[in-house]
Amino acid sequence: MSKIEDYIKKYRKTGDSKWFSMIYEDTMPRIYRYYYYKTMQRELSEDLTSEVFIRVYRNLRKTRLNEKTFISWIYRIAHNLLIDHFRKNIKMNQPLEEFLDPIQVSDEEILKKESSYLNKELDLEKPELISAVNKLTGLQKDAVILRFLEDMDYDTIARILGKNKGTVRGIIFRAMERIRKEMIAGDG
Amino acid sequence: MDKKTQKVIDKCHMLVVKGYSLEYCLQKFRDHEREIRDYFSIAQDLKKLSKIRPSKKFAKNSLDSIISMAKARDVSEASSGIRFSPKRLLLKPAMIFIAFVVISVFSFAGTLFASQESVPGETLYPLKRSFENFQLIVYPEGMKGGLHLKFLGNRIEEAEVLLDSDDAVDPLLIEELISEMDRQYQSCNQYNCLGPDHEDDILDSMNSVKNRYRNRFGEGTGFSNNKSEGGTAQNGNNETNMNGGRTDQGRGKGGQGSGKGNGR
């Protein structure tokens, strides 16, 4: 049994917040990262992360989850919450699909500010990587974050995104190709 | 990127996860060296992005506020009663209606079943009789003779139960039963539902009830016995033969008059 599965089991059994805090420490940074790269806004990412864990706290004891299903479950909560957030902030004349699919950070000011923050924080050798990632579609960005930042296998990503394994694989390779081209264009 | 290159990259990814070096992989798949290098270089750069963390302040303080907010929401939902859910709101009346119908059907069927064992004077007896009348209305003509025979059997049985009872029994109830027995017998005859052997048994049973009634409640009861073996009615007080038994049909077996009231 994995560490997180053990925490879930103990928390479900005892309801002791100590076990919930273990789960939180383990998974909170992942959810934060997911939101951060989706929105490129630190404060908003923290708010959304908190909201995810409020929902997890209220519902975890009612579930029967192992590690894999827990991870899928929590990312689904995160994804749905992000959609709700954008739905609330969407302009009336803007189709939801148009807004959701790219979920790109199109504000140049934000992008510049966050890119310099990231370069400083992470000491990136290729600063153009951030803008290349931000040019991916929403789905491509999700898949890349889960695959390369969170080290997930195709099966888990497929479960989270509600796609089949082959589709996820295709999305990831197309995203990598796009990043490569964007970085070459950025270099040039 | 073609499918073959994608497969090679996936294999390399597996090898690296298992602990092999990238160089080993590049040597193994020399034809795809450039694509493998590009892919792993980007993957390595992307991996660095995972080092980003929320602010220390958030990491330190968020958990307590999350737990307290979650608890507050639980409390507010509990105090506001049932959570609003359109699906639940739509389903609820439908479920209540279905439950009501199911419970009603089962209760009625159960009561009806229980009423089949009832005798006059009991609460469920009117239901039993109503159900019999209902059956007479809905059954096809060809089956009504059988129904009358069955109801005649029921009346005989009920009368016997009352006569066997040690408790005080209202004689009027038994009188009613005897009258009903005669009516059912007559109706049964109209449908020719009795064979000669069967008829003798039925007549014997009916006469036995009448005799037992007379024995228990006195002679002046005014019931005439039905002829069972070609004899005449034993009780000569009232030979009105109101029910027009087999005598009326010229076969010498009738005389089952229910001329009650003579002795009461």
In short:
Chain A is mainly α.
Question: Your description of this structure?
Answer:
- The complex is a heterodimer of chains A (188) and B (264).
- The longest helix of chain A is centred in the N-terminal third of the chain and has 23 residues.
- Chain A has two domains: 100 residues, Rna Polymerase Sigma Factor, Chain: A (Orthogonal Bundle), CATH 1.10.1740; 80 residues, Orthogonal Bundle (Arc Repressor Mutant, subunit A), CATH 1.10.10.
- Chain A has ten helices and no strands.
- Chain A is mainly α.
- Chain A is 78% helix and 0% strand.
- Chain A is globular and about 55 Å long.
- In chain A, helix 7 crosses helix 10.
- By secondary structure, chain B is an all-alpha fold.
- Among the domains of chain B are: 47 residues, no CATH class; 111 residues.
- Helices cover 66% and strands 0% of the residues of chain B.
- Chain B is built from nine helices and no strands.
- In chain B, helix 8 runs antiparallel to helix 9.
- Chain B is elongated, with a radius of gyration of 45 Å.
- Classes of the chains: A mainly alpha (188), B mainly alpha (264).
- Chains A and B meet through helix 2, helix 3, helix 6, helix 8 and helix 10 of A and helix 1, helix 3 and helix 4 of B.
